[in-house]
Amino acid sequence: MLKKYGDFIAGLCGMALAAYIFITGYQIGLTEGKDFGAGFLPKLVATGLFICCAILTYRGFKTMHTVKAEQSEYKKNYLGAYGIFIMMVIYALCMKPVGFVISSAVFLFCAILLATKRENWKPIMFAVISVVLVLAVYFVFKDIFGIRLPNGVLDSIF
Amino acid sequence: MSEIITGITSVMTPSILALMFMGVVMGIIVGAIPGLTVTMGVALFLPMTYGMEPIAGLALLCALYIGGTSGGLISAILLQIPGTPASVATCFDGHPMAQRGEAGKALGVGIVASFLGGFVSFIVLAVLAPSIARVALKFGSYEYFSIGIFSLVMIASLSKGSLVKGLISAFLGFSASFVGIAPVTSFARFTFDISKLRTGFQLLPALIGLFAISQIMSALEDKYKEEDSSIRDYKIKGFGFTREDIKGQGKNFLVSTLIGTGVGILPGLGAGICNIMAYSAVKDMSKYPEKFGTGIVDGIIASETSNNACCGGALIPLMTLGIPGDNTTAIILAGFMVHGIAPGPLLFDNQAVLVYGIFAALFISNFFMIIAEYVGMRGFVKILNVPNNLLMPIIAVFCFVGAYGVNNRIFEIYVMLGFGLLGYIMKKLSIPQAPIILGFILGPIIEKYLRSGLQRSHGSFVPFITAPISGFFLLLTVVVLGYTVYKEVKKMRSGKAA
Description:
The structure holds two protein chains of two kinds. Chain A is an all-alpha fold. Chain A has helices spanning 2-32, 40-63, 78-98, 100-115, 123-144. Chain A has two domains: 2-63; 78-154. Chain A is built from five helices and no strands. In chain A, helix 1 runs antiparallel to helix 2, helix 3 (78-98) packs antiparallel against helix 4 and helix 4 packs across helix 5 (123-144). The longest helix of chain A is centred in the first third of the chain and has 31 residues, at 2-32. The radius of gyration of chain A is 24 Å and the shape is flat. In chain A, 29% of the residues are buried. Chain B has one domain (2-497). Helices cover 71% and strands 1% of the residues of chain B. Chain B has helices spanning 2-10, 14-32, 38-49, 54-79, 88-99, 103-136, 141-154, 163-177, 203-221, 250-265, 271-285, 297-321, 327-337, 347-350, 352-380, 388-407, 411-428, 434-456, 462-466, 468-497, and strands spanning 180-181, 188-189. In chain B, a hairpin with a 6-residue loop joins strand 1 (180-181) and strand 2. In chain B, helix 3 runs parallel beside helix 13 (327-337). The radius of gyration of chain B is 22 Å and the shape is globular. Chains A and B meet through helix 1, helix 2, helix 3, helix 4 and helix 5 of A and helix 8, helix 9, helix 16, helix 17 and helix 18 of B.
């Protein structure tokens, strides 16, 4: 699917982005009105991006009927790739209110489970790794590198 | 002569030698952890130098600089995640070698290339510094703009298979650099009224996202791929490579050293750019450019030689003119200043002993770097023994800490995730990732010098062409672009004929 229509769709998206940058750049140029303004280079780059994306769209359109779908030697786990990304977004959202230690330990534990084949799950070992590693990272970064990570609900303890 | 000897002996005390060794090891650790930069490492240790003798403090900062610049190769080769922007191009060939079970060889070649690149550039620094600095002083906005454009066009040749996709990647990086306050006029662009966007996207979260987050997602996608246990058998003899492996690399080394030192001398460019420039230059010159990116030593030598050569180059304007070549040397400049020493043309006359002491510290730190990495490389490769199902989530946590640590803001984590998703999509569409980074780094530089140049010339583009150095680089740009397009068209026609 991606191999077949990827270039065509990416080209169209790129052209839309280039048009947006150009229009915004044009507006900047109008408001500023001196030398070439802060909108000059965005317009120039947007033009270049638009041309390249138009070529990509054209090539994608020409080849989409001839390209065969990619055959993988093993089962691809797309759900895992999207799953870990969603987990990372949730992890980022929780880090400040919950704190680095708890959110990281939970994320690490869940991410290891997600990355491990079901038959190899060892929950207790994964939990120990998660907690020990996160605590080690927290204290190394706090005490050696001077990076204060969010404490969240554990603020009174750390 | 007596000043040279006094300078050298000033750093040969056990305490300063121990301090330098510690600095190199800390630098390597900082460089190897994605998210911690050399600049950050040097900045962290700067306050420690306040109470030290000037030579001890400056030797420590130089040791950190050298160790950190080289340390980035470890994660670049083993994890395909550049520890610092200086080792982006090391990923291209280093990681494929590690995947083939040649991690030891890749690390060994990288370590030796780093050492030799640094060594030659320090000789250049010691011998030619004042005269080179005088030439560099002649560079103005026209020249910097032209060099920026030239570098950007050079990356077109980096694009594996498609010039169009390479250019799209570069334009995307350029576009991302527009977000925030515009140079020269401080006009806020593409901020969507979000105050946090006024500072623009930081390089480090973008870099971690593009390389690490996309790599983590790809690894999860390949969860059911059977791992070949035979490639995890790492037996390293010596530096892990033979004389045969590096045969015929002299020219590659020379070009990369020249690019590294040259780019280092020019303020504001730095190792983040020179490693990609050297890689593309060596690839262009190569008799087998199609092999680049598949895991050959040529690519590692180009990247690692140039980034350490950049260290010596960046110290030239710092010591001779008092102008830092990159962010890290800006902090080293602060190290000079806290001791009441003003780097500049008079430094060589007034503080000759200190100058020679610093030169000696650079050479000694470079030796410490190769020793520390040689001893450590057998341990580094063990990282690859950690199964992917544990390694990738652990790396994710490090990425979060690294991105957060840039400004102590969760916002940088969101930026990292955004670039991570973009990197993953780019991988799926076979759009190269290196040009986006170079476009992102060079964007503000090109814009700044274009606009200040235009202000200087009252809106005329003519001086950009008529200024000799600027004109030369623009001509070179046209030649490189024309040649790349010609190669692309020829390849397409031969493909059609077949």
